[in-house]
Structure formats: C-alpha cells, structure tokens
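Structure tokens please, single chain.
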Amino acid sequence: MTTRNEINPAKKLAPQQKRSREARERILLAAEELLRHEGVDGFSMAAVARVAGLPVGNIYRRFEGRDDLLTALKEIVASRIISAVAEAVQCREHEDLRGFVMTFARAIGEVFSRDEALHRALFDPRVASPAMLVTGVSTKTANFRLFHDGVSKYTENSPAEEVLLSSKVAFSVIVNAPLQKLRGVDVLLSGMEWDVIISQFGTAAFLYLEAALPKSA
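Here you go.
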C-alpha cells in the first residue's frame, strides 16, 4: 500500500522533465530564428532569451553559454542536412553514375540554399568553436559515406582503393563550393547563383570520375 509520503519518483519528475524539454526546444527554436534574421552579429544569450520570451537565467540553466547553444543548434541542423541528402540519393534509382553524381550535387546545393541565412551563420568562421568543428567533420563524413556508397555501385570494375580516392576528390569538388559560398571567402563563388554552382561543380565532379575511372564511368 502506497502512503502519501511514498511518491513515485518517475511520476514526480515527469511534469518537470516535460517542461524542461519544452523549454529547451523553445530556446533552440528562438536561437534558430535569431540566427536566421540577425546573423552572428545579433546573436547573444540575452537576445535568445528575448525571442524565446524567457528569463536569460533559463537559457543558462540549459546551456553553458553562447558556444554551447550554437553547438546544440549546429547538431540539429547537421542532422537535417544528412537526412535530406540521404533521402535525395537513396530514395530513387539512377540510370548511371552521372545521374547519381548530379542528384547528390543537387541535394547538397539545395539543402544549403533552402535556408541560406541560417547555414551562413552556422558556418561563419567567427563561431567555429572546437565542438562545432567536430560536428562539421561528422556531417561531412556521413555525407561522404553516402557519396562513396553511391559511386561504388557504378564502379564495381575498378579497384576499391581507386574508387575511394576518386570519390574523395569528386566529393570535395561538390561540397567545398557551397561551403566556400556560405563562408563568403571566395569572391568568385559568392557572386555565383546556386543553380550554377550545383550544375557546374556537379558536372566537374562527374567528369573527373569519368577520367579517373574510365572503365566504370
């Protein structure tokens, strides 16, 4: 028999845990909106609190500081990027290697251009903390795995080592151009439209693979 003093810890904590999760989600959504509209220059814990409609102390109870909050947000966005690229390249059949490479290039370009302001802020070198760099590496690694697996399906007659090396080069051609455009460090890419980047760098990556793996491409 349970007395009034014998309270189930799970039942006692459940409402508080739910409120804590909801508050965390509210903070992250506010941080995302703030970055999207104000960029890095307008991002602060106080500004996030204002957008979220919460006391700034609530933000610090869940995040150690600005870097911690930005890292959590980048992890969420990184997961979206991986999911979007995976869905684009895995949920359809491609006629040949060129079809796969162009689909991959289009997926990378579209996922960044669809929310360009947010991605530009998260890839801004001024907020590149060690933790955020780790998240970036993990995202790039996951996307490369998708790319290499796809290329391998059309290059079965080539040595695995050559396919791996060629995939790394072609992947870098496709991915680095959008990243450079977002970071604003390349004046030529900064002024280039997204559809041009997608088509031109996607084609360049395919032509490289075709030359590096002629028997398979």
